[in-house]
Write the structure tokens for this entry.
Amino acid sequence: MFDAIARVLGRLLYIIYKTIAFQNYGVSLILFTIIVKLALLPLSIKQIKSSQKMQEIQPEIDRIQKRYKNDREKLNQELMKIYQEKGVNPASGCLPLFIQLPILWALYYTIRKPLTYMLGWSKEFIGKIILKIMEIQPQFFSGNEYTYILDKFEGVKNDPVAVADLFGRNLYSEINIVDALNTIPSLVEDGVEKISLKFLGIFNLGVKPTYNLSAIIQNPGLYIPALVIVLIAVVTTYLGSRMSANQLSQNSNSQAAQTNKTLMFFGPVMTLLIGFQAPLGLSFYWTISNLFQMAQQYFLDKYVYKKKEE
């Protein structure tokens, strides 16, 4: 499923890259994020409305939970009754999240394998490029993570598809190939599309961020900007969760408020963990998504819901 979604997202990202983003990968991700968020806007509005309705009936829900805390069957019956009376679907608030998660994971595939999902290169073509790199500058495939691959290379080097499969065991092999393509222009013939994963000349959105101090000291220009993006993603996740919690609940004693407080800290922690396991482009996407979400919520709060209340 993720492979199929990644192919669609990859082509969309590539079209944006080649047209309105002027072949700037960072701008492509920004525009891609805005398009995705706008597409999900009706669901987001529905989610906010559902959450507001849930907040309105939360005192009644709290009373029912307290009254029937020892009778699970009666508790469920009474909760379903009040949901039906008020026209509330407690699961509808999760719908945008359920849609966003497959997009997020598919985007992880897309960013990690830009040659496959953005450019649509076949395994055979990728294998031939790898063979050329191994002849000219094999240092693009160096490090402990390539030890096993290089040990097996001699046995498969006559089969480009097998070579692509072998090097594909490294999650960042295609990103290494992209770096090689931009360093050695002669690797591909004229007319063959290439991409750059750089943004503003500072951020390499294909790099995997690290907190390894020795690696940061050895290459500060690569890893310090990556750390900055990851930390911004964590901070914006926290601020977005806090804004949602403040908007959805003013009653700090309610169960919903307690849940919001838990998510306020769970989200940033997950963002931090995933940020060090995925290419930087994913943290960049998540940062833009958070900023757009906060701007969207501010606009809705100030110009839509407040106006409706007045």
